[in-house]
Amino acid sequence: MTVTITHEDIADLCTGSVFLATGGGGDPYISQILVQEALKKYGPVDLLPLGDLPDDALVVTIGEVGAPSVSLEQLPIGTECLDVIDRFEEWVGRKITHIVSFEVGGANSVIPLIAAAAKKIPLIDGDGMARALPEAQMMTFAIEGVRPSPALAVDYTGGCVYFDTADAVLYERQVRNLAMAMGGMVFTAEHPMTSEEARRAIIPGTISFALALGRVLKENFGSAALVEKPLRKLFDASDYGVLKHLYTGKIVDINRKTVGGFDVGEAVLESVGDDRPPMHLSIKNEFLVAKVGGEVVASVPDLITMVDHETSSPINSERVHYGQRVTVFGIGCPPHYRTERALKVVEPRAFGFDFDFVPIEKL
Amino acid sequence: MWHCRKLPGSLKNEDRHWGSSVDRRGSETVRIGIDVGGTHTDAVVLEEQSVIASTKVLTSANVRDGVVNALDEILAQSSVDHTAIEAVMIGTTQFTNAVIERRELAPTAIVRIALPSGELVPPMIDWPDDIAEVLGRHTYMIHGGRTYDGFPIAPLSEKEIDAVISDLIAKNIRLVAISGVFSPSDPSQEQAVAARIQEKIPDVRITLSHSIGRMGLLERENAALLNASLLPLADKVVSSFAGALSDRKIKCPFYVSQNDGTLMSAEFASEFPALTFASGPTNSLRGASLLTRLNDAVVVDIGGTTSDIGVLQDGFPRQSNIAIEVGGVRTNFRMPDIQAIGLGGGSLVLDEGRTIGPQSVGYRLVTEGLVFGGETLTTTDITVASGAVNIGDATRLSGLANSVVETAVATIHSIIDSGIDQMKSSRDPVPVILVGGGAVLVSRSLDTASELYRPEHSGVANAIGAANAQVGSETERIVSFRRVPRDQVLEEITDQLKAELEHAGAISDTIKIADIEEAAVSYMADESTRIRVKMVGDLSFERRGTS
User: Fold this and answer.
1) How much is the ipTM here?
2) Which end of chain B is more exposed for a tag (fewer CB within 10 A), N or C?
């Protein structure tokens, strides 16, 4: 089914994408404004179902890489995502036939819509994470063996850096350091894919899912206890498969520090209404591991999402503070992340935890 | 002299008395605190820390008459010698109300120094149309600004600046806000553009964004715009205050209180009226602190319909972390973190006492409450029935079952407990200060409270807070401690703030750091840190000779 996105859908899409960002992804406010203006100007965008991708496509993924908190001060120009497309086509000498988002979690869920609207390049309904994750090699594109380059990054001056790098981990280091040198944020076009690669590597349906999720959260605005049922229905019918209520409690401790360019830390929740032992949530930009009484109840690559208990608004990890009443949900990740190859880069051990991944439905 | 009322039952009583006994024949100096609200103008006379007079009168349309009336009341009550008044402190909601009601806002231009960044996110893009049209959407964007680490985004272009100036002249605009990317870290470009405009348009009035807001370009720019548009009203209000004081032959300096519990001089308030936004709740919290001498506590201001819960940290309100809208415009003003809960003296009691509020009879309590001869069961009736307070006609409550009273009292306390629990900053019980007309609702201990305080004069806590505000100054930067050691960064910042405070009238040796907040900038591996420092000091009062 083709889903059409209008400027009036963007707020809901952003809410859904913050939910799927599992605490990471940053504040999408500026991107939300840009996309709303672009869709007002150029008209709505039809999302192309992955199944409708023709055989001779050149699919390229576009988005922003860097520190979201810096971009609230130094705003994007607003045309970077068009610029990366022009420059990519000029460099490789081919037209991009389709674009796709890196990650549905956070601002990158909506940025490709600007390019899709302005350039009339079809946008595939899907992405490379089905959530937010911190590094390029964790995208399903890289996991499925897609080469990161040819890739390029446009900075705030309109200047451009071209990458010819075979390895996703090295590419991640290169582009991360470029972002730090160039005002904290760059826009990239990367991981070009053939139709065959795209069908294998893209997680389908995630953009329209984020929109549907945002609508459920808006229509059921109110206590997390009440929104749980409609949410479970939505997730049960999707590739995510399962949504579990993990905990309802109050934040009694939160500590964060920056290590190696990441926000790492731990949040502690105490139960409200029963005498369950406290929940410990480990954070590395995103919520990665949830334990109750020392037992793991959910871990990466499955999704751990925190919402305000009274309004069910998803809470970004940088906004967690003492005293908030929150509900934590655990959500299964799509099958793309359950393969042995995928788990090697996204399992708890890949983030330095000393235990094996157990799917949430078995916990 | 004041003291705190003894609370019933097991409550710990704040029985400390302070302040010298009233003796106005001597050379004691006094301060006057005035709170000009939308409905009421409150005023107090303070001698040292003692309230020696207080009043509540109606706010007048021209502000001045209401202030004059309040002054007449308190001067008559206290019979202070005018020469003994060392300072007058005024808190006001006039500017907040002007923004909310879209009145008395003047046409104002915004010049943003940021291109090429932000080209498609122009100023005022997310403003509600009604207020944007009042200001006129005179938006300009020019090249310039800096990156988070201080590198120039683009050089300033004189040609661009002059084109803006020609347009301002053509449109006859005399109020201008200027914003620049990372200007809180480096304000030089905002200052350069301002100087150029001032040179070509001598009667222009300018608000620079770095002087009014913190990181977050859109929010800071909005704050600067609102401020500039309020400048003509600020002249009017500040001169009303000055006029009222001179009408009553009060010649001491006067100050206006800011949203963070500190004072600004009258001249400064004329330049930064937007800094008064939310000063009301702040003064109420500060007043509660002064009435109890507590620096760290939770303050519950119980009104007729809602209760506002705020947190005192080191004698100042804990500030909110989220973007705050003023009249639908996103800003990042320093605002107290206030949690409003739907419980007040007029809240309806339903379901045998198990449900209370959020519906309330509000100001109609005095006609609709049972003890006042009405037909509605309210929290005030419950409190009277429980014997905790004696208001109205208690005999009208004879039909009320004890079990309902007991359940309702428990519900009231559990609602307040839960509100306090969400606001307090650790899991341990904290001192709790109850103020406002509904403070009587709390008649028992609270699980969240280590001690409960219910000071006298809490009805004019705002004016008391205003009278005792300090001067403060704050700055925020993104820095890399790997490049410049933290000690050096702090020294630079504190030197700058100390100079600002001395300029604002603070006594040098009372100046201290009130708050340092550090937050890592995510994804930045060079230990980039957002650091915010606030310093405060006591105001020096020049003792005037008696005449």
Assistant:
1) 0.85
2) C
